[in-house]
Structures are given as structure tokens and as C-alpha cells.
Amino acid sequence: MSKVVLLVEDNDFIRNMYQLKLAKADLAVVEAIDGKMALDKIAEHKPDIILLDLMMPNVGGLEVLRELKKQGVVPGLPVIVLTNVMDQQTIAEAKDLGARDYIVKTDLTPSQVVEKLEPFLK
After folding, report:
1. Per residue in 14-43, pLDDT tens?
2. For the chain, how many structural domains are there in total?
3. What is the pTM for the complete model shown?
């Protein structure tokens, strides 16, 4: 049975690109385009890992992390931030809220991002 990845990304092109890479790695992908949808999908699909963008409409990624921490979902559910936000304060806040890793989209190829997920899926 394949592991389920919740991919939370508002940009259609980026979301589709990662969806293809994740599916090619034999992972089941559930998609959300904002934080509110992500919180609903987490409850509905019980993902094994979350790839979470920070800058999204309605409810942003840090708000999702705050809610997951409040609910006690993290650290049991690995959340990997995948964003282009590079400031140290945001990185520190995401990690304080329970993010297991913080990946800047421009630093890695989608294939490298998928490789970074492997230890969290064992």
C-alpha cells in the first residue's frame, strides 16, 4: 500500500509538477490549494506526510502548522515546509511549530525533494 502525501500548494504549475514526481515515486497524492482545504484533507485522508507551502490565500502554511500543533497532530505527522520564503525568522517559527524540515523550492529539483521525503516515510 502506498504512502499518502498531502501536497499543499496554491500554484497550479508547481502543484502539478510535484504531483507527477510524487506519483512517479509510487506515492498517493492528495492535493490542497490553501490551508483551510489542507486542514480538511488531513482529517479526511490521514496522510503519512505533508508537503506544505507557506504563502497561500485564505489560510497560510504557518497557520496550518499552528493549528496542527494545537491539535497535537505534530510531531506524529511529519510536515515538510516547501516554500520560497527564506528569512531566518520564518524558518525558526516553522520549526518551532513542528516542521521536520524546511525546503526552499529554488534550492532543490522536484526529484531531490522527493528523495528528502524518503526517511520520513519509513
Report:
1. 999 999 999 999 999 999 999 999 999 999
2. 1
3. 0.95
